[in-house]
Write the structure tokens for this entry.
Amino acid sequence: MSDRFDEQMRELGRAARAEAEAALDVDTALAAIHRSTGTTSVVTAEPPQRPRVGWLAIAAAVVVAIGAGVWFARDDGAVVTVTPTVPSTVTPTVPATTPQVSPTTAATTTPTNVPATTAPTTVPATTAPSTVPTSSPVPVGQVVRDVDWRDLPWEASGIAGSCVFGESTCTQLVHDAAGVPITYEPTTRTLVRHGVPELAVTLPAAYGDAGFVVATGPDDVVYLSVAPEVPEEMAADVVAVTLTDGDAGREIGRWAGVTNTVGDSSLVPTADGLLNVGCCGTDTIRPALDAEVPVPWIDRNGEPVALESPTFWVQIEYPALIVHRRNPDGSSRSWTYEPAGDWMPRGMPNLTATFDGGFVAAEFGSDGSTLARGYADGRLDQVVLGPEFVVVDAVDPAGRILLGDVAELDDQFARVDPFANGVAAWAGEITVDTDGTIVFVDDPSDVRAGSVVAFVAAIVPPADVNEIRTIDAERHSELTWTVTVTTSNLFDDSVAAVRWELEVAQVGVATFQVTSGQASQLCSPGRGPDVFTTELCV
Amino acid sequence: MSVFVRVVTTHDFDTVFREVYPRLVSLGVLKTGRTDVARDLAQETMLRAHARWDELATYDAPAAWCRTVMTNLMIDHHRSSSSERRAVDRLGARLADGTDHDGTAASALDRWNELVAPLGDRHRTIVTLYYADDLSVSQIAALLGTSRGAVKAALFKARRTLRKQYGVDETGGDDE
């Protein structure tokens, strides 16, 4: 049941829709489709006609079917009974098969394997790469998993973000090369580096309220698209600002009108700087390796600087995509795969380099967010993230996914690990003394983790099958926690649960150190102490 | 013995294009506030449809497939471009009494975009599908791959915002 408000909205919606459709030149649009795909439009002056052969097949089948007393389905799907009127002795002249009516376009249209594109844009033409990595592509052919993101390991990231006042004010999230989250609130122009310590700066009002971070560069410099100094409807400026303690928010470079604001192109990081990749051209190498770089990387003094992070270029051999990762040391790795869903090449894929030498690609298709995870050993995994209408906001260098605007969290991003690779399992040695003291024989402080819980989950021995593991973190100060790891449902029938209490300190933006640890255990009923102690159970 | 035979219905691309393309464009215009973007996305949707027409031609409702792709392209576009936000912001600056800054009467399209401007991307999509495209809650849920409850919750929140825009109290009325 609807109320008057609903009716008003529907009336307005229908009127607006009619306006939007009124001035459309459908024939021209259809002709453009055929032109771009090298096909021919069928004649439209007459109603669509089924091919004669189709009718002949149907007629023949009718004869056969009538003879056999069969059921037919009408074109609208309704089942009708055909009463046999012909003697069953009639000999069929054609095979009694299901009649297949070919589409009327079949004879005149020939979809090609060339990626469908829209009109050419004015972005720089691409050419063949000047250098080709030596690593070999891996074979195509992977299993694509469909998963509901809520069924995956996920956590509240602690990174504030919201869309309270509408999408135009949503928090933008990116990561720098070290994996430190950086957020930008466009309406308040607040740029925050979520490191240790956290750093926040408000950028000038002249930057406008529709800015966004284009990339993070070397030397703690962030590149943003901002309102142009010289008013321009279709373009925006790029500014480079510092984001270091004591010098945050200083503009050290500006490039006028280099970003396109209508989606025709976007700036993509390369070793030399940021360059434009068109949305809709027929380029098969993206970005063009010899294209002009409109925004070079600069350091905090405004001097040219080299990017010491991996970059990507892709080859499109539709339906396959070849992702090339180039590392700062000159090495490279390639992955060849067919992206899941109805992938079509549009612009540059959203690629994130992972710490382990791989990558994550995140695209939105008709089936939801499609994620591809390439590993350094050449393996490739694909996931279609659903079924929720969910959009991937960011991918961190650990290969995890950040989701904003989800019902489960009002004011922060959710961190999801679709590839179960949040933090690589730590292979160091740990011993437990008889008094319960936990000794880390190897130093785990080189493990990179986005949270203290992720860090501890990575360094403690993995839970066995059927065991139940809980990890609780109690924060004592900005940088110190007591983390309690409790493992229950053990196979040992004398021990009900084992508990490790670890004192952990954060020592870097994504690194932690265990300052002390104590193990204890809870015995099963009748097998020893009924509280956590270091006494052995019997 | 009876044999069940099903006649396969197929669709020709041009006919479907003529039926579907205008609806896709209007959906895009009402969702993004931009005619050029809507036409571009509708064109890309139909290109994708054309590329796999051999398969789509046998679908019961290829138009539904096209609508799904269009919806997702709009989401993708929203993420990758700030232009829509700028356009919506501009539209949001129009006067609430149905006139433009220059005093001329605003069109239904302008008034629509003004109303939905404060909504988030997801809510704007659902509101457009519900009010302007006449889809039911169930149809929207199926289209977006989410639950009916999620769609109803989104509609509830969106209606609250829209009512404020309209200047009416929040009262009564189900979503379906």
Remarks:
- The helical segments of chain A are 4-22, 26-37, 52-68, 452-459.
